[in-house]
Amino acid sequence: MASSSLTGRNRALFSVSTLLLCFLLCISEQSNAQSFPVFACDVTGNPSLAGFRFCNTGLNIKARVTDLVGRLTLEEKIVFLGSKAIGVSRLGIPAYNWWSEALHGVSDLGSGTSFSGQVPGATSFPQVILTAASYNVSLFQAIGKVVSTEARAMYNVGSAGLTFWSPNVNIFRDPRWGRGQETPGEDPELSSKYAVAYVRGLQETDGGDPNRLKVAACCKHYTAYDVDNWKDVHRFTFNAVVNQQDMADTFQPPFKSCVVDGNVASVMCSYNQVNGKPTCADPDLLSGVIRGQWKLNGYIVSDCDSVDVLYTNQHYVKTKGEAVAKSILAGLDLNCDHFTGEHAMEAVRAGLVNETAIDKAISNNFATLMRLGFFDGDPKKQPYGGLGPKDVCTADNQELARDAARQGIVMLKNSAGSLPLSPSAIKTLAVIGPNANATLTMLGNYHGKPCKYTTPLQGLAETVSSTYQPGCSNVACPEPDIGSAAALAASADAVVLVMGADQSIEQEDLDRLDLYLPGKQQELVTQVAKAAKGPVVLVIMSGGGFDITFAKNDEKITSIMWVGYPGEAGGLAIADVIFGRHNPSGNLPMTWYPQSYVEKVPMSNMNMRPDQSKGYPGRTYRFYAGETVYAFGDGLTYTKFDHQLIKAPRIVSLSLDDNHPCRSSECQSLDAIGPHCENAVEGVSDFEVHLKVKNVGDREGSHTVFLFFTPPQVHGSPIKHLLGFEKVHLGKSEETVVRFNVDVCKDLSVVDEIGKRKIALGHHLLHVGSLKHSLNISV
């Protein structure tokens, strides 16, 4: 019996083990099998849905949304105020997660996206700050287009949503900001052009129908958000005190461009307060400006649980229901996370908000999903339905990531005879530094899983024999191994030092306190350079700038490059520039300040303009006239370009009505609206600037032509301001003509003290490189 019993037990164990093994195998097979996208109106699977008007693709979106909202109970409506909507099965509407991210490639940071066996990674482009340094608008859009293709491909296998909360178009106002890396830099014009191009790349369909979306983009964080966690100042409780002038000419332009020119499908309000009001509960900022003035065609979403923050952290309201009501009534349509969904009924029952306001909010959300085709039935039968894993991480996409990094890399110093290095002359290369073999660091924040990595060491070693010494255990560099690093440098024909930062130094919720290289990196760099017998190339990998005056002035450090966070192909791009396969053409999108600047300027002071009475120096190249380590727009190349002005007016005369007050009295400025903006003598309120650009060096290369202007000193106008830029590629001795169209009232206007645009009368100065051209605007 005992033996028989034991045998039975073994059989039972064997049966259980077999079942468990089968179960695990089934689970494994399911995880690797084809998954399917979520979508509504599956009339094939449920023919009864065909009777719903909201499933009828022959009707316009407004009619379909009205029908859908009319079929929902109040409880069901509230579900669609939060980012994790559980769906309504009786109407054939599945659960949908709104939160996906695509800052510089599809990311799995948002809970609406995941990587799996089907799609293990996606193309990881350079962090935005480096892409912006290319000043190449067509590149911005091309990256957006690739990202949206990969996003749609992932959606088709159930790995992503259709709503992506990118880009970040905040102004990089202070060099210590941990999230400056996510932005296009400090200039409103560059930020606006980046925003529009990237949004178009994400959203525009192949047919170009503005009422259809490939994926839905979102411009964030609205507005005046650029402090995360500095000393005792935190984004959840920070009140950004911003005057009307700075709001109108610095903080708002990228968001306005996103909505008006980019037709973005969403704007995200930020955690902070602006002038005492939480942005997500400010009806003037949301309903008044975004939807009223700019005519947003889409939805307004909160940063994640900003509605909770205004109650819990800011104590702006007394109850949770009041927080929900104030945000909805201000114009918020969707709350990232769960707070609004949990407390909206409380707000309704207390009479703080009515069902009509909720209808309005969810109507904006549904309209966006309808533009995406979410309510059009099976995505496989729609445009982009054929995309899948084969369209993610393609060779072309990965090459674009490499090219984007190459185009953005900025050469800041290059002594004669240093770069490019000759692969035939360099027999041994020392590659030193905590970022020399970086992988994850190259991606920056809001990254996904890349297709693959090529580290700086790997990229350089593909060309010449390279020996690696980290020098520091990490970027914090508490105890550098100077002896080993210096010995390696002394034995090599050339040295590449890859230093800088990573996300332990700068990131969301982490601002810097100073501008020095972390830890003892400076000591390591200096001693290695001192020991080196050949060229020394200092590569800075970071989002923000550093005070590297020591390296700029050290003759032993022959070259300096800033490579941002260069993405998955960063090592290849760095090697391409160092060995001359690519001629660098990047230009800084932000000012690099000395440490002395941040010692006297608190991050929490939002003022852009200087205040001499308080010793306040102002911010960014537009208003700061002090010492810099490197200036906005700096960037060297291996060739040389000359500019020649061909066409530009000397005088622009504005025609005023007979009763205009400035006809009888002397005025410093005019309103930048009115008949005089339509009837200027030189070209009906606009004119052209033509510039001949010639490559006078000995190799082909790309070059950014910047057009700046300096207005008369009225209304605290900028020292200079970027009007436009154009990227050109020229062969040796090749030339071309670059044309800028200048709208007098739009481009040459300044913002006055109360936030109104004015045309300054008198002497203006146009700048292109070393060229200066005087222009007089008169009446």
UniProtKB/TrEMBL annotation:
Residues 703-772 form the Fibronectin type III-like domain. It is found in: Secreted. One of its GO terms (molecular function) is alpha-L-arabinofuranosidase activity. Keywords: Glycoprotein, Glycosidase, Hydrolase, Secreted, Signal. Its main location: secreted. Residues 1-33 form the signal peptide. Pfam families: Fn3-like (PF14310), Glyco_hydro_3 (PF00933), Glyco_hydro_3_C (PF01915). GO terms for cellular component: apoplast. GO terms for biological process: arabinan catabolic process; xylan catabolic process. Belongs to the glycosyl hydrolase 3 family. This is Fibronectin type III-like domain.
